[in-house]
Amino acid sequence: MTQPRIAIVHERFTEFGGSEAVVGELSETWPGTDVFAPIVDPAGVRPPLTTVHDTWLSRAYAATGRRSHAPLLPFVPRALRRLPLGSRYDAVVVSHHAFATQAAFATDAPVIAYVHSPARWAWDKDFRAQEAGGRAGQLALATLGRLARSGELRAAPKLSHVVANSRAVAARVNDWWGLPATVTYPPVQIDRFTPDASIPRDDFFLFAGRLVPYKRPDLAIRAAQRAGCRLVILGDGRFRTHLETLAGPETTFLGATSHEVLLDTYRRCRALLMPGVEDFGIVPVEAMACGTPILAVNQGGALDTVSPGNTGEHIPHGPDEAVVDHLAKAMLTFDPTAYNPATIRTHAETFSPTAFRSQMAATVAQFLR
């Protein structure tokens, strides 16, 4: 059978994260696939990807010393609409955060959108206020938000199918775009994270990930203070300086660390804390692959990844003070021995790259012309 001609479109490769890993797995689903993105920093491209077709925005980004891609975002929709897709492909798969569906205007092939989320900062005023620093930042993000909302709505009718990365994201697609969406969970490299029964659990809880406002590490810090429990924070980001002013002696910041340190810390902590609302949340699945239970708020991707009583517990979502109180109480009474590491690991395996590739191949096959 002839290999279908697939193009993959991503919004930007300015750093490497979960969505870039998704694009890598998409390229493995259809070997030899052409990958496009308006802005590409070579440091943001990792194997299995080798070549990404970019636009003039990459040169503009390099000319600024790659300090920030944010000033270039207003130009991204037009760059996406002008990608050289045309009639060259049997289908186009877009990896969407805010603008990628604009590529639907550059092709007459079926377009399947894998949606990490519609632009939350464009649709959700509370989320935007949380992410924007100061009045000027809020105004800039509000202006960009109007561009993202209008672009998403204009592109929606041109999409052949929408795949969401969680049930929460599927609900946003329905609420904000008026479209149905199926759910395919993103791939997690669970083979890199394994249990080790010889390592005993220590007396600390863990927060791991980028230190940015929406992940709410501040709530984890406040809960640890209230409960008098040790907390280890792995990761770095623009929120770190503020977090260090909040933290007491019970909290330790380790910064960005090696994979070996991350693996060891997953294996030794009592539980991983997930106080923010994630679109999906790769970090908790990594921790579960190590047999580690999770304490997560009961919204967003945690509703898909955390099984109460089996792989951890859900904390009621609500105002900050209530979340801190519920999380502190859960930490005080938490018993990691009540959870079977083998059961937790088995659950994590349902989010494997193999499962992702199989589901995406089957979905796209329905729309090949």
Protein architecture, described:
There is one protein chain. By secondary structure, the chain is of the alpha/beta class. The chain has two domains: 6-187 and 352-365, Glycogen Phosphorylase B (Rossmann fold, 3-Layer(aba) Sandwich); 190-351, Glycogen Phosphorylase B (Rossmann fold, 3-Layer(aba) Sandwich). 39% of the residues lie in helices and 15% in strands. It contains 15 helices and 14 strands. The protein has helices at residues 18-29, 56-63, 76-81, 120-123, 125-131, 134-155, 167-177, 217-227, 240-246, 259-268, 282-289, 302-305, 320-333, 341-348, 353-365; strands spanning 6-10, 12-13, 34-36, 39-40, 91-96, 111-115, 161-164, 182-183, 204-208, 230-234, 251-255, 272-274, 294-297, 312-315. A six-stranded parallel β-sheet has the order 3-1-5-6-7-8. The protein has a three-stranded parallel β-sheet with strand order 9-10-11, with helices on both faces. Strand 10 (230-234), helix 9 and strand 11 (251-255) form a beta-alpha-beta unit. Helix 1 (18-29) crosses helix 15, helix 8 (217-227) crosses helix 13 (320-333) and helix 11 (282-289) crosses helix 14 (341-348). The model has no long low-confidence stretch (mean pLDDT 93).
